[in-house]
Amino acid sequence: MPIATVNPATGETLKTFDALGAEEIDRRLALAATAFSRYRTTDFARRTDLLNRAAQLLDEDREGIARIMTTEMGKPIAAARAEAAKCAKAMRWYAAHAESLLADEHPSAADVKDSGASRAIVRYRPLGVVLAVMPWNFPLWQVVRFAAPALMAGNVGLLKHASNVPQTALYLEELFRRAGFEEGCFQTLLVGSGAVEKILRDRRVAAATLTGSEPAGRSVAAIAGDEVKKTVLELGGSDPFVVMPSADIARAASTAVTARVQNNGQSCIAAKRFIVHADVYDDFCERFTARMEQLTVGDPMQESTDVGPLASEQGRADVEVLVEDALRRGATARCGGRRPEKPAQGWYYEPTVLEGITPDMRIHHEEAFGPVATVYRVADLDEAVAVANDTPFGLSSNVWTRDDEETERFTRGIEAGGVFFNGMTASHPAMPFGGVKRSGYGRELSGHGIREFCNVTTVWHGAAPDDSR
Prior knowledge:
With 469 residues, the chain is of the alpha/beta class. Helices cover 42% and strands 19% of the residues. The protein folds into two domains: 4-235 and 439-459, 3-Layer(aba) Sandwich (Aldehyde Dehydrogenase, Chain A, domain 1); 239-421, Aldehyde Dehydrogenase, Chain A, domain 2 (3-Layer(aba) Sandwich), CATH 3.40.309.
């Protein structure tokens, strides 16, 4: 795949970039290793100042970087501004909390004595150079939620971003440089996917994190496993959105639309499968479908646009294949199911609601990365949990109920990294984020995320000789 900015609203190639050669990659790896040898010794006060400065610059740059993101991958401009603001917020959160999250831990006096020590502590130390392989769908946020904690922990970063968002990737390197981080603390590597293995195997790289597709995750995990290097993977999701009879149906239907079409439907944590109790199925579906039909599809630079184009021509083709397979096997489209007549150019797809889904349809098990919702009618809570778990993924989930007993049963029963009640899944720097099953392993954000790339070190001091003997 060429490294290029291709406007998905028009299909026009705006700018292309040459991939780095082997000699330049090696130079940058050496630069990262040298930077880590110095940056690891900085104190939290210095790191805090640097990251807060980066947040300030990002706030000042918000409109410009939002337009770059929208141009490169098609997200509505309002959503792009919100993404930039969220990144600045996360930077400030880690700047404020990293020192306490990584504070030395002290075992109990009884345990210290029992271990034969005079004193003992647990200390969090940085691992080193961390390679981040990141996707295009949230081209700023996906990187910052890795970079902010990694840098505050004393690590340095190498970014291999998706090839269709090169200008966003270069902006991030420049942002951290302008903030005052030493050269080499954060570098963007404009390389294709074929270069990842050699970089990851390099002895100067200590660990890797990847957000992306399941095949990409398998590849990085296999390489890192062979090299015995730490990885964190956040892969696909096919999140359930369960609606029970006690729910506020009007609010559930309204939220369901946002949960499905956020980022033009291209979000791992977007609700994709809507599992509705039979008692409220008709009411919910009528409201949900009506709102999906009312969405404005169009130019993502326009403030009034709800749904822009998919990020690539191949991405739209993948969605079309899943929808056509479902329709051919007996599903029904309550709305959508095709390309819109207008805009005529660009990689647009109509907001779609499919019902009558059966396990033999690909969309039942595969992630639909576009504005396509599937709805299921279930008889009771047990069936709702069974359908929710009938997926290879387990990233997050949404449940609408006002029954306390149901809340506890769903919390115990749903296999996912998160269960959000009476709202939609969202990431926040204070809360751990990640999945189970084929959605990956490890956690980003919160204290769990910052500790993923730390050497958890036991520091043990032997007891002094017993002079009485």
